[in-house]
Write a structure and sequence with these properties.
The chain has 103 residues and is mostly helical. The protein is 94% helix and 0% strand.
Length: 103
């Protein structure tokens, strides 16, 4: 889980960095005029669209992955409980075997 949360944090930080760089470009674009300004404005708009698409895709995939994880956990819970019961029984029998061995 720790590796997953680190990866999510890294992607979120990357998206924040992209947003900060877009804001930086906007500030630099304010200093330019004429045809260059229109071109820069268009590129900034394109970058914003791409960033929004990346964020939407990231959060959609994150939500889907979390849902799959919940489903798998729900499916595995009864198996874990049965395994725990089997483990307790095996431990009990091992304990009995050790008692018999030392008596």
């Amino acid at each position: 889980m720790d590796r997953k949360s680190k990866a999510v944090e890294e992607v979120e930080k990357l998206l924040q960095d992209i947003g900060a760089k877009i804001d930086e470009l906007i500030e630099k674009g304010k200093e330019v005029s004429g045809e260059a300004k229109r071109e820069i404005d268009q590129r900034i708009a394109d970058l914003k669209d791409k960033k929004e698409n990346l964020e939407r895709d990231f959060y959609t995939r994150k939500r889907d992955l979390d849902e799959k994880l919940r489903q798998k956990k729900k499916e595995m819970d009864p198996k874990f409980k049965r395994s725990g019961a089997h483990f307790k029984e095996a431990f009990r029998q091992l304990n009995e075997a050790i008692k018999v061995l030392f008596d």
